Amino acid sequence: SGELVAVKRVALHDINGDSLASIKMEIDLLKKLNHANIVQYIDTIQTDTHLHIILEIMESSLSAMCKKFGNFSESLTAIYMTQVLEGLKYLHDQGVLHRDVKGANILTTKNGVLKLADFGVAIKLSDNLEGEDMDVVGTPYWMAPEIIEMKGTTSACDIWSVGCTIIELLTGTDGA
Questions:
Q1: Measured between alpha carbons, how far is 86 from 51 in angstroms, rounded to an integer?
Q2: Global pTM?
Q3: Which part of the chain has CATH 1.10.510.10?
Q4: Residue 50 parent element (H or E)
Q5: Bridge-partner residues for 58, per DSSP?
Q6: Is 149 left (phi over 0), alpha (psi -120 to 50) or beta?
Q7: Which segments of the chain belong to CATH 3.30.200.20?
Q8: Closest listed residue to residue 136, CA positions, set 118, 157, 119, 117
Q9: What pLDDT is attached to residue 145?
Q10: CATH top-level class for 60-171?
Q11: Strands 60-61 and 96-97, how do they pair?
Q12: Catalytic residues
């Protein structure tokens, strides 16, 4: 079709069964998501040696843009975070927690539309499970205190990470 796409290529010989199951869960989750602020899944092609996850092409990450151009203004950060929050609202309405919101996992199109990406540690919750997931996953400087303290993951943890991302963009640093 001539359409440009991004291909996430995973070598099957390098991963164990648990990792492959996790990748397939990520694919199953992406297949069900359809929102302007979520990176769009297109297809998966599996060969004997590799798994190719085909996604819409994106221009850059907020993290990379911050490193290249310096910290963002408050007004630009507000515009960007509004888009991120729209994507998160959709995810949370679907019962999905991203669990790794940060500048590196927020991608932009050529037209400036932001999209949440990298659903490798995202989980789909049943209505009665929120707060019961005790896994410590994500990126340390963006993790909510309740995750670090193993008190459970809720949608509020993603919102905490948005706050950390705002600091990342306004200061031009990643917390490290």
A1: 30
A2: 0.85
A3: 60-171
A4: strand 50-56
A5: none
A6: alpha
A7: 5-56
A8: 157
A9: 57
A10: mainly alpha
A11: unpaired
A12: 100
